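User: [FeFe] hydrogenase H-cluster radical SAM maturase HydE. Structure?
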Amino acid sequence: MKQLVHKLYARGELSKDELVYLLGHMDIETRKELYRFARMRREQAYGDKVYMRGLIEFSSYCRQNCLYCGLRAGNRAAERYRLSPREILECCREGYELGFRTFVLQSGEDPWYTTDLLATLIRDIKSEFPDAAITLSIGEREEGTYRLLFESGADRFLMRHETASRRLYQSLHPSMSFDHRRQCLETLLAIGYQVGAGFMVGLPGQTVEDLAEDMKYLKSLNPDMIGIGPFIPHDHTPLGDAKAGSLEDTLVMVALARLYLPHALIPATTALGSLNPEGREMALKVGANVVMPNLSPIFVRKKYALYNNKICTGDESAQCRHCLELRIGAAGFSVDMGRGDSLKAVGTRRHA
Ligand code: SAM
Ligand code: SF4
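Assistant: Predicted structure:
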């Protein structure tokens, strides 16, 4: 089994059959070898640096109905909120003071934020903080909107493909289309965004073949960023009684992502930290190199509830930043507060 890990390290990919076999026979020794090689790749590409992104969860309204997500439109128990452009700018100011040079603006799919409103907001943030990068994570929109927001100054876009299995995707997204999601990712790349794709691990009904398909898809898409987190149930969703994805399975997929795409930025996700208190540190040790402390105002934190027991919903932004810095240092890494563009973007000199 270790030979397959060595082959992956040397070639940057395996055939789907080989990967399915590896995932199906992952004993402790193989896992250790995988983690060791993934860490080596990360060090070769990014050294011991961990990039910090300030996350602003600006709206919990969503018109979609993803079966797993606490923000789904059908969750009548959810408390909804929207931050005004002024409040979002205020979060950026606080974040900038704390040293952040990337702001990630994330929300449910909320058309209340029109293209014009978002474009103005992006221009305002950029004019006040020209040396900061703006990452959007607002879901599916028209190509014209993506284009205008890019021209207004947005640099990056996170939109997980969620699962590369058409069957599984369709069963989890009653209001969405598998092909359209992928089309959006292609469009974003073509426009010039640094793009983040990614998926959840441990979704009900997910097989090792599905996970192998996720790696194959990522290899062909070649995104700048890859978000991988465990599925965690939320009580007020149709999957409220389902089992969460496991820590080990998620770490394996993070390590594989590092070996498949050495130049990608890979966050140690909040979902991993919610599953296990040391989850994010473990992810950093097997190939992840980004963390996203929360900059949202305290009074909305608990309302952005994607899944049960989400961490860091009670801490001030400064506390979150400080806590993560200590954790990163203790895990043997160093914090980089710069923009932290992906090596792929730097290499191809896209949108500086
Ligand atoms: N609405 C946008 C979208 O879907 O792309 C951005 C916000 S959405 C809340 C961000 C990510 O949260 C999704 O891509 C999904 O992978 C993750 N997520 C949602 N529900 C989750 C759950 N129950 N467990 C783990 N991750 C979840
Ligand atoms: Fe909405 Fe995104 Fe949650 Fe789906 S994952 S329900 S699009 S917020």
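The CA atoms of residues 303 and 332 lie 33 Å apart. Residues 2-350 form a domain with the TIM Barrel fold (CATH 3.20.20.70).
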